[in-house]
């Protein structure tokens, strides 16, 4: 009985093996047939890569060949050059995600890698990457992506992508480099425009007003920052001053700086108090800033030149430093920056200045000058102004000299803006 | 900077060690870009040794992302360096904080209970 059962099981297993072998033969034949069909296509199709358009065309061809929904070329970083990731359609998958997958190509000579990549906007997608080798080294990777993450990726898919990639590997890298250069040029032009916009709103001269002395400096970073400062005389003769710092860079940040600058200046001209000026700016621009993934720190002050009364309101900006009767005071932000979620009900700080008193307002480009693994900090700004300093211009010069000494020959990492106000005899 | 991550019940919990600044914040952006499911973010910042204005900006972006999903960003036990910057910029009024990760997870759960239809 036992022997008969074993014989039956053996027979069943033998039949299963035969069936699997038959299936394997059929699959092998199918694969060979598919590959034979692809060879003429590979040999006949012209793939010349001379421009960014050709690169898109090449990616498109590979996508068509394997029925992919997306495609891309990833150029590995080299000395002095960042990694680049060009896709069709544009920006379908984050470069960082691709970097992680492509790094597996170098592991044990993987001929191709498959991975599911998540993307907040597009959802998850299935990707297949094959290497681009130049002079024996991995220099780039070509990928195809599918929305259907359960799609079966056949060996022929990888072979096809690989074969098409091998034929153009040299041109591919050159074209990617060319496109990177074009993008860099456009980026530089965009930054130049942003710089011009930002420069256009900085005051040409500080205000001249009886009993008050104002001196200021605005030094833009090589890469455009978002600092701006301004002033306005109020209807009652008080001097209104403000400084803003937009968190982003480039044209959007520069335009936001212009808009906010105009709003704050207008509000000051209307004679509003500092907290009201900030509220006005917040009402006008918070939603726009927030929608643009930007935010802006802002500090606004009003000084009555007749009495020396000063009031300050600060939304997320670096502290305003006041030297009143030889003692330094630090007036901090009472509300977060404009554009950050949450209501803006700023508090007003007030004091009466005496002759010789000073106000120092600065951007984080000054307080965050790198010093080793830390930053300069506003304590050092106060320490850099000698006790005997009595004028705004002397205070400004002292801070500039100290900050230059700290920065050394390193380029500015951010815009550096300072204005100082002195109350005169 | 080093980021360790885990996801528990739609809460993405990150431990951010080291410097969160312009040069390193792409790491945080990449982690957030890869996460499409989490409603809440819990950032353990006990060992975040430094944060600059760009780092702050990335926290604000994370907060906006969490709120756009009906969730919240909760900062856990920010280091003295981070706490000082948050206070200086009045951002301490913006972010919810917790003393440890467990408390932050419970806060996220309570938030869900309150906002459930």
Provide keyphrases for this structure.
heterodimer, A: 425 residues, Beta-Lactamase, 5-stranded antiparallel beta sheet, 9 helices, B: 117 residues, alpha/beta, Transcription Regulator spoIIAA, 6-stranded mixed beta sheet
What features would you describe in this structure?
The complex is a heterodimer of chains A (425) and B (117). By secondary structure, chain A is an alpha+beta fold. Chain A has helices at residues 2-44, 52-66, 95-102, 155-201, 250-269, 274-291, 364-367, 378-383, 392-407, and strands spanning 70-75, 84-88, 113-117, 125-134, 137-146, 208-209, 212-219, 227-233, 239-246, 296-303, 309-315, 320-324, 327-331, 349-352, 358-362, 370-371, 374-375, 416-423. In chain A, β6 (208-209) and β7 (212-219) form a beta hairpin. In chain A, α2 packs antiparallel against α4 (155-201). The relative contact order of chain B is 0.18. The model of chain B has no long low-confidence stretch (mean pLDDT 89). Helix content of chain B is 43%, strand content 28%. Chain B is built from 4 helices and 6 strands. Chain B has 117 residues and is an alpha/beta fold. The chains are: A alpha+beta (425), B alpha/beta (117). Chain A binds chain B through residues 94, 96-97, 118-120, 123-124, 245, 247-248, 290, 293, 295, 297, 314-319, 332-337, 340-342, 364, 368, 373-375, 413-414, and chain B through 19, 22, 26-27, 29-30, 33-36, 49-50, 52-54, 56-57, 60-61, 63-64, 67, 87-91, 93-94.
């Amino acid at each position: 009985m036992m022997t008969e059962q074993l014989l039956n099981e053996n027979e069943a297993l033998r039949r299963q093996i035969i069936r699997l072998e038959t299936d394997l033969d059929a699959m092998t034949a199918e694969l060979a047939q598919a590959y034979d069909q692809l060879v003429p296509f590979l040999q006949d199709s012209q793939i010349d890569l001379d421009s960014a358009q050709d690169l898109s065309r090449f990616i498109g061809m590979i996508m068509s060949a394997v029925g992919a929904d997306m495609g891309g070329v990833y150029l590995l970083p080299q000395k002095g050059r960042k990694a680049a990731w060009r896709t069709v359609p544009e920006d379908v998958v984050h470069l960082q995600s691709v970097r992680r997958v492509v790094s597996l190509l170098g592991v044990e000579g993987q001929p191709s890698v498959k991975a599911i990549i998540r993307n907040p906007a597009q959802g998850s997608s299935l990707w297949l990457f094959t290497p681009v080798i130049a002079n024996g080294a991995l220099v780039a990777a070509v990928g195809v992506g599918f929305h259907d993450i359960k799609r079966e990726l056949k060996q022929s898919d990888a072979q096809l992508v690989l074969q098409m990639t091998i034929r153009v590997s040299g041109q591919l890298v050159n074209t990617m480099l060319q496109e990177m250069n074009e993008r860099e040029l456009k980026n530089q032009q965009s930054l130049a425009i942003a710089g011009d916009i930002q420069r256009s709103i900085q005051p040409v001269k500080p205000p001249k007003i009886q009993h008050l002395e104002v001196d200021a400096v605005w030094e833009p970073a090589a890469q455009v920052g978002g600092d701006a400062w301004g002033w306005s005389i109020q209807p009652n003769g008080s001097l209104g001053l403000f400084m803003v710092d937009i968190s982003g860079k480039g044209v959007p940040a520069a335009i936001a700086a212009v808009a906010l600058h105009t709003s704050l200046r207008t509000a000051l001209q209307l004679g509003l108090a500092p907290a009201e000026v900030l509220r006005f700016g917040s009402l006008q621009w918070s939603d726009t800033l927030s929608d643009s993934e930007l935010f802006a720190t802002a500090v606004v002050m009003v000084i009555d030149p007749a009495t020396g009364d000063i009031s300050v309101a600060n939304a997320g900006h670096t502290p305003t430093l006041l030297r009143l009767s030889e003692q330094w005071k630090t007036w901090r932000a009472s509300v977060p920056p404009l554009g950050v979620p949450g209501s803006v009900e700023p508090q007003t700080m007030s004091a009466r200045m005496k002759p010789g008193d000073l106000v120092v307002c600065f951007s984080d480009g000054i307080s965050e000058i790198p010093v080793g693994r830390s930053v300069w900090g506003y304590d050092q700004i106060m320490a850099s102004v000698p006790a005997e300093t009595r004028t705004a211009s002397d205070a400004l010069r002292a801070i500039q000299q100290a900050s230059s000494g700290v920065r050394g020959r390193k380029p500015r990492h951010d815009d550096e803006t300072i204005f100082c106000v002195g109350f005169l005899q | 900077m080093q980021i360790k991550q885990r996801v528990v019940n739609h809460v993405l919990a990150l431990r951010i060690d080291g410097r969160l600044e312009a040069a390193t914040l792409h790491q945080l952006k990449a982690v957030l870009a890869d996460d499409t499911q989490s409603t809440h973010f819990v950032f353990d910042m006990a060992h975040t040794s430094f944060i600059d204005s760009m780092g702050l900006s990335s926290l604000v972006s994370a907060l906006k992302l969490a709120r756009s999903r009906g969730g919240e960003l909760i900062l856990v036990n920010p280091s003295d360096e981070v706490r000082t910057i948050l206070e200086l910029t009045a951002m301490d009024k913006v972010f919810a904080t917790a003393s440890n990760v467990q408390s932050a997870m419970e806060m996220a759960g309570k938030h869900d209970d309150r906002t459930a239809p």
